[in-house]
Amino acid sequence: MLIQTVLNDCHGFSFFKYAGVIFDREKKKIIIEMSSKQSSKARCSRCETKCPTYDHQSERRFKFVPLFGYQVTIIYIPRRVRCTEHGVVIEWMPWALGKRPICRSFALFLASWSKTLSWTDVARKFHVSWDIVFISVKYVVDYGLLNRCLDKIESIGIDEILFRRGHHFVTLVFEITEGSKRLLWIGEGRKSKTLLRFFRILGKAQYCSIKIVCSDMWAAYLKVVKKKLPNALHILDRFHVMKLLNKAIDQTRRIEFRALQEEGKENILTSTRWLFLKSPGNLTDKQSVKLSDLVDQNLKTYTVYLMRELFQKLWTITAARHAETFIKGWCIIANRSKIDPLKRVAKTLTKHLPYLLNWFKTERKISNGTVEGFNNKVKLIMRRAFGFSSFSHLEIALYHNLGNLTEPKMTHSFV
Ligand SMILES: [Zn+2]
Predict the structure, then answer these.
(1) Separation between Cα atoms, residue 394 and residue 415, nearest integer Å
(2) pLDDT in tens, 270-310
(3) Which of 39, 78, 172, 305 has its CA 20 to 30 A from that of 277?
(4) What distance in angstroms lies between residue 79's CA and the mean position of ligand 1's atoms?
């Protein structure tokens, strides 16, 4: 009796009642019988209009939120109704999630846990299949996407991430306005036509409000942004520029590593990859000692490392003209270094100088670390799931965690 009272309070419906409870102590299960209220007429599941009953179907079971560690199932014998508009259809059951064997409230409950745990862990913890967890998250995401507002977006960040081995990339578009940061769109691939799909979905009336675009130097993105948002300020952010420099360090280290091996010298560059990718302030004591050992070795890798650290100074400059002098000076030193990976960075930076300088015209309206922050979160979500086998799974997981989407309303929160 107490369970029925609790259920009526947190999961009650005007035209239905909780008729009985079967308690299976051994299997740790609670079965709750739902029935329609005697006076209430069934409603069409498509238009929710009251209709005469046509017939009864066989019993259906709906998994509900566990209570006190017991699995809970609601059973109900649905009616079919004869709707003047839709013909003979199943009645409207406000707790049901289409034809799925779960209650909407349970779907919300599972989706909520899926923000903290992997889908596999959620399935295991609540004794449901992986598919049920996916369907639950998809239900929440679909609702959120349908009900989100895409008006007045001022700044976006575009990023690409390796989704699967073999150059399978996805393109991500984030809103990066201070106070409104979220994933706006994800598309398979990183070609021009991929990004064009984002603009097509958004529509001109909405994307014309975009004033600032932040991306890396991928030519396809630069081309599409120029075409669709010719008046927007397109900037290259710190994250992607520094990524370029880290790549140069890694390339130089590999070349030098091989050369030292061929000369048969003691390989002082062994296990130094992560050391060179970190800033001096983030090194462990052991790494600091190792780095100081390398200082006297006249290594090209160390030169590139120092050049990267020097480049960090750029982000403390406030005026565009000072930044331009700094970058040009840095490129002169890089070109004189005779280190090919470093010279390639100088070439890329020179080619994209206007985009780099645009950063200094944003008046710090957007944070330099926003796209990097999203990039890290995406990687974390992918790691938590041990990778995603299909793009649609990745898409749903990312919208769910980063889309800042509105969730379907329930009278009671079970989490
Ligand atoms: Zn109808």
Answers:
(1) 24
(2) 777 776 677 777 777 777 777 777 767 778 888 998 899 99
(3) 172
(4) 14
Total-model pTM: 0.85
User: What are 217-272's pLDDT values in tens digits?
Assistant: 889 999 999 999 999 999 988 888 888 999 999 999 888 888 888 877 767 667 77
16 CA from centroid of ligand 1 (Å): 19
Ligand 1 centre and the CA of 41: distance in Å? 13
Residue 256 corresponds to which amino acid?
Answer: E
In Å, how far are 251, 298, 324, 337, 397 from 306, measured between CA atoms? 15, 12, 20, 12, 39
191 CA from centroid of ligand 1 (Å): 45
User: Which tokens belong to 300?
Assistant: 């090209």
Residue among 415, 374, 389 at smallest CA distance from 116: 415
Phi, psi values for residue 190, rounded to 5°: -145, 35
Q: What are the structural domains of the chain?
A: 1-94 (no CATH), 155-236+366-384 (3.30.420.10), 238-361 (no CATH)
Q: How far is the CA of 84 from the centre of ligand 1 (A)?
A: 7
Q: What's phi and psi for 399, nearest 5 deg?
A: -60, -40
Distance 80 CA to ligand 1 centre (A): 11
Q: Which residues, in sequence order, are CB contacts of 349 under 8 Å at separation 6+?
A: 241, 244, 327, 330, 331, 356
> Is the sign of the CA dihedral 307, 312, 313, 315 positive or negative?
positive
Q: How far is the CA of 93 from the centre of ligand 1 (A)?
A: 13
Ligand 1 centroid from CA 50, angstroms: 8
Ligand 1 center from residue 48 Cα (angstroms):
6
Contacts of 49 (CB under 8 A, 6+ apart): 43, 83, 84, 85
Distance CA 76, CA 212 (A): 54
